[in-house]
From TrEMBL:
Its EC number is 2.7.1.148. Belongs to the GHMP kinase family. IspE subfamily. Keywords: ATP-binding, Chloroplast, Kinase, Nucleotide-binding, Plastid, Signal, Transferase, Transit peptide. It is an enzyme of class 2 (transferase). This is 4-(cytidine 5'-diphospho)-2-C-methyl-D-erythritol kinase. It catalyses: 4-CDP-2-C-methyl-D-erythritol + ATP = 4-CDP-2-C-methyl-D-erythritol 2-phosphate + ADP + H(+). It is found in: Plastid, Chloroplast. The keyword Nucleotide-binding applies. GO terms for cellular component: chloroplast.
């Protein structure tokens, strides 16, 4: 049966040429499973530790053996060729293998890795080290990735897989950097296997990578018996990136300095408030944005006043200032046009429309749906669109992804609130 498969590597594939010819004999079993969650399911092919994943709508599960032949045509030791479908199944199998090992400590964990928005972002000055000081209201939101962790049998390296092409799987990835940092700080020796189910777009100004790093630190600590405090994890995470310490807040924080000075605050915006995230396929390079940044083209409003107004009066267009919008719009002029069109089409449905971080996501707070033109016009067919809600966590617990029932409850609550306040909530 001929098949057309789209392949992408999730493990580095580096196979030495065989010294003898090979032929493969396979014993296959066909299984159908119900898809759980969203996105396509996968089939994994591999030799040894190499893996290639192909999209497919059903499951093949089997084990093949490549029979190496010597010059006399006699079969030598078979090399196992494993065919595994679906990262979830592979994760569970690895966990079972670890459970049966008497020499390896057993632990596995699945965590939600959230993203964030900057409700306002003021740049307050340039530092001697070349970075800029900022003052910003950060808030965790319900859009996030899923990270599945397990203690690895390896004693020398971590292993990372993902469902998305283009994500680095080596030491350049913040997840691997977080593991290395944790071992450096604690002296522990455990290595980890992790699968990243990527849902937060990159280059979006939503802090997806920083959220991954913070989540990986939390997971490493959980799988080492919580030997570090939350405060220590927060302090260490600043070495991974200026946004990372924020994720160790309770979800809402006023952040200053480079962003690593985090002041927890009670959620200033009702958690039932919906929002829509709209990101064009083009990314805004943070480096390029700061190259075009000028202190002469910033707001002069005291950021403490912005925070006070949001706490006392709620979110509004006037308080959602982002000093990085002008340089970001210079890097990506179509982003400015997109924001202006959303504002013009909103007709009061959004309480505020603003860019998050250094872009390129435009956030509309007050409604979970984008304006109709996003659906109607072909030039917006490739934009990323997602609903989201503000999110917090309890102390000593990590962030939890809201269930569909919880989101429905939030939406129902917001509809009732809109009706009571006689606001326009189209």
């Amino acid at each position: 049966m001929a098949e057309s498969l789209s392949l992408f590597a999730v493990f580095p594939v580096a196979l030495a040429p065989p010294s003898s010819s090979s032929r493969t004999q396979c014993s296959m079993q066909w299984h159908r499973r119900i898809s759980v969650g969203v996105g396509s399911m996968h089939r994994t092919f591999g030799v040894g530790k190499s893996r290639v994943v192909a999209s497919k709508s059903a499951l093949w599960r089997g084990v093949c053996r490549a029979l190496d032949q010597n010059s006399e045509g006699q079969a030598t030791t078979p090399a196992p060729l494993e065919i595994v479908y679906d990262p979830q199944s592979r994760f569970e199998e690895l966990a079972m293998e670890l459970n049966s090992s008497s020499s390896t400590p057993v632990s596995n964990l699945t965590l939600f890795s959230p993203s964030k928005v900057n409700v306002f972002l003021r740049i307050t000055g340039k530092r001697p080290d070349g970075y800029h000081n900022l003052a910003s209201l950060f808030h965790v939101i319900s859009l996030g990735d899923i990270l599945k962790f397990s203690v690895s049998p390896s004693t020398t390296k971590d292993s990372l897989t993902t469902n998305t092409a283009g994500v680095p799987l080596d030491g350049k990835n913040l997840i691997i950097k977080a593991f290395n940092l944790y071992r450096e700080k604690t002296g522990t020796k455990k290595y980890f296997w992790v699968h990243l189910d990527k849902r937060v777009p990159t280059g979006a100004g939503l802090g997806g990578g920083s959220g991954n790093a913070a989540t990986a630190l939390w997971a490493a600590n959980q799988m080492n018996g919580n030997i570090a405090s939350e405060k220590e994890l927060q302090e260490w995470s600043g070495e991974l990136g200026a946004d990372c310490p924020f994720f160790f807040s309770q979800g809402a924080a006023y952040c200053t300095n480079k962003g690593e000075v985090v002041r927890n605050i009670p959620p200033p915006i009702p958690l039932s408030t919906p929002m829509v995230l709209i990101k064009p396929p083009e990314e805004c390079s943070t480096v390029e944005v700061y190259k075009r940044f000028s202190m002469d083209n910033t707001s002069d409003v005291n950021p403490e006043d912005l925070l006070r107004e949001i706490v006392e009066k709620g979110i509004s267009q006037a308080v959602c200032i982002n000093d990085l919008e002008p340089p970001a719009f210079a890097v990506l002029p179509t982003l400015k046009a997109l924001k202006e069109r959303i504002l013009a089409a909103s007709r009061g449905r959004y309480q505020a429309v603003f860019m998050s971080g250094s872009g390129s996501t435009i956030v509309g707070v007050g409604d979970s749906q984008p304006p109709q033109f996003i659906y109607d016009e072909d030039k917006y067919s490739d934009v990323f669109v997602s609903e989201a809600y503000f999110l917090t966590r309890k102390e000593n617990e990590w962030y939890q992804q809201p269930t569909s029932e919880q989101i429905e409850d939030l939406a129902e609550y917001e509809d009732k609130t809109c009706s009571i306040e006689k606001r326009t909530c189209e």
